[in-house]
Design goal:
The chain has 3 helices and 34 strands. The protein is mostly beta strands and 603 residues long. The protein folds into 2 domains: 388 residues, Tachylectin-2, Chain A, CATH 2.115.10; 164 residues, Sandwich (Jelly Rolls). The strands form 7 sheets. The chain has a 6-stranded mixed β-sheet, with no helix packed on it. Strand 21 and strand 22 form a beta hairpin. The chain starts with 5 loop residues before the first strand and ends in a 5-residue tail after the last strand.
């Protein structure tokens, strides 16, 4: 991360050519490529509490490859300490996503090894799942959270794992299809399995969760797995006593979820699952939110995060709805998972990756690529007899505010439809927060504001009250949208840096065009477009709070305290956006609030 970070992994990064776009208060890799957050966990082993972030990491390039588990930690989500990779790539396999459990003063990392194996001149892919255990850092006695070794198998044997090699190098979880093949074909080998109809090459992203009932009487660990077109649910408990096991190596398949829910699974690949318990306000009965990261299938193309609200008994997940609900309505939000081991479960905190697989490898940064969004706190709210996820920036984010502010007090009516304000006092470093209450006193169809620079590059934020049939696909009535339009935000000719990576599975319409195009606001290409939030999820028809965090190349929007969230990246060629213009097409609109200059406080 560019600011206020300690770098125990001492790269010579003095020539950081990407200072213009590198966010100032979001986590980024010190160098190299980053995608999915892994193993989000809170621990207090040495008396100093830390939130750990492990992540998909390539230290050798700013494009996807050579997957390691990168590692950073923080006390406040604002100041990050960069540590050496937690798990290094093996000779024959990438280290894919997973999760971390805290137990008995140790961290247990669950992760996928993605390998390739050649047999009869054919290259096969496989995915098996393993455990690593934290060991003390020999260079720092107070650091008990660095992974150096993965117990119980030789990484050079990777590509030859299977029953016939014995427990010492067996993964903890292999696909059911592979297990069934060995059970039904005694004496057969891994090579035989690869050539069988059972062969399944997608089985990854283990997420460990401590299941508890409403009264916290019963508890045991469950593990979620992505299996291409579905999620699988495993239990780690004694079937006789119903008590949790602690070896983390004995898992029983007890349930599945996904097929027939959300985006049609024939067009998507499931990744990075999670499930969290949230008590609605005033209720003693918890709802369980199943988080499903999908690629592609997002409402505006590419990767996105859908979720479901429902009930969970530790084995079977029962969703309250079939259609998808979206955690974030931007283009650049993916792979969100939540923190394990937060004390007393007082908060449910998640962290996303802020990019999209359509263009993640070709955004105009060189020494690093990608970042994480702001930490988000999840609660539930009720609308039209259903529960929806409220996604708000965590309380720590307020500590970014400085005393440098610009007050906003504008009323626009028929004779005054636009008003311009210079915000250079807060915009110089490209880090600020816009927090505005928008009140409609007389009806308007389109009203909002845009931020822009002297080169005419701009981002438009506005409410469009006309009905939008898109929302009917997601169980809503379609009563208008809040839109962020980034078509003219700056450096958006990403094809200059390489080819867009539209997924082969992306759904197409009867004319052969990508089906998501009709969902976007004024689509030009995969980057030049606008994204939308449904207005009917907001608290009121006539008064809305708009909170926008701008951080050089990042924009995160939260409406009405989190009833709608949106994350998009931008790349201005000129100065950071240093002016704001308010407008309405008719009626009477007032804008009241504050723009804050932001900076990372000292740790």
């Amino acid at each position: 991360m560019h600011c206020n970070s300690t770098n125990y992994w001492d790269y010579d990064a003095g020539r950081d050519r990407d200072i213009k776009y590198r966010p100032g208060y979001h986590h980024t890799p010190f160098i190299g490529w980053m995608n999915d957050p892994n193993g989000l966990v809170y621990e207090n082993m040495t008396g100093t509490p830390y939130y750990h972030l492990f992540y998909q990491f390539n230290p050798y390039s700013s494009k996807w490859d050579n997957m390691h588990w990168g590692h950073s930690k923080t006390k406040d989500f604002l100041n990050w300490i960069h540590l050496p990779p937690a798990i290094y790539r093996f000779q024959k396999g990438h280290i894919f996503s997973g999760s971390v459990a805290y137990y008995n003063n140790k961290l247990y990392a669950f992760f996928t090894v993605f390998g390739k194996h050649e047999h009869n001149k054919i290259k096969f892919e496989f995915q098996h799942n393993y455990i690593a255990t934290s060991v003390p850092n020999p260079y720092n006695d107070s650091d008990l959270t660095t992974y150096y070794n993965i117990s119980d198998y030789d990484p050079h044997e990777l590509g030859r794992v299977g029953k016939q090699f014995g427990n010492k190098i067996n993964p903890i979880l292999i696909p059911e299809e592979e297990k069934e093949f060995y059970d039904n074909n005694p004496g057969k080998t891994f090579n035989d399995y690869l050539e069988s109809p059972n062969y399944n090459s997608n089985y990854r992203d283990p997420k460990i969760v401590l299941y508890k009932d409403d009264k916290n009487i019963t508890e045991y660990y469950v593990l979620l797995m992505s299996a291409d077109y579905e999620y699988r649910i495993y239990q780690n408990k004694d079937p006789k006593t119903n008590e949790k096991l602690t070896d983390f190596e004995t898992w029983s398949l007890v349930g599945k979820f996904g097929v027939g829910y959300g985006v049609d699974t024939k067009y998507i690949q499931y990744e990075c699952p999670d499930i969290v318990r949230i008590f609605p306000s005033g209720s003693s009965h918890a709802k369980w939110v199943f988080i499903a990261n999908i690629n592609p299938g997002g409402p505006f193309g590419g990767s996105a995060t859908e979720y479901f609200t429902g009930d969970f008994d530790g084995a079977t997940y029962t969703s309250d709805h079939v259609y998808p609900k979206w955690m974030d309505f931007g283009k650049d939000h993916y792979a969100t998972v939540t923190y394990n081991n937060i004390p007393h479960e007082e908060r449910v905190l998640g962290l996303p990756w802020t990019s999209n697989w359509i263009y993640a490898n070709i955004v105009p940064t060189v020494q690093y690529r990608s970042s994480n969004g702001l930490p988000r706190e999840f609660t539930l709210f009720r609308y039209a007899s259903e529960y929806f996820l409220n996604v708000a920036p965590s309380k720590e984010v307020k500590n970014l505010r400085t005393d440098v502010t610009i007050p906003i007090s504008e009323t626009l009516a028929k004779r005054k439809k636009k008003s311009v304000l210079d915000i250079s006092a807060v915009a110089g470093e490209g880090m600020y927060e816009i927090n505005i209450d928008v009140t409609v006193t007389k009806n308007a169809k389109k009203y909002g504001f845009y931020i822009y620079n002297d080169d005419g590059e701009k981002i438009d934020f506005f409410f469009d009250t006309r009905n939008d049939k898109l929302w009917k696909e997601y169980g809503l009535l379609g009563k208008g949208s809040f839109i962020m339009d980034r078509r003219y935000s700056g450096n958006h000719n990403l094809s200059y840096y390489g080819k867009y990576g539209a997924h082969d599975r992306e759904k197409k319409d009867e004319n052969g065009n990508y089906a998501f195009i009709k969902n976007c606001y004024k689509y030009i290409d995969h980057f030049k477009l606008g994204t939308k939030i449904p207005m009917e999820l907001l608290k009121s028809k006539r008064k809305h709070n708009v909170q926008i965090f701008y951080d050089r190349s990042h924009v995160e929007v939260f409406l009405d305290g989190g009833r709608g969230a949106m994350t998009n990246i931008v790349f201005p060629l000129g100065d950071y956006y240093n002016k704001i213009k308010f407008y309405t097409d008719r009626g009477s609109i007032s804008f009241e609030g504050t723009i804050y200059k932001l900076e990372v406080p000292s740790s």
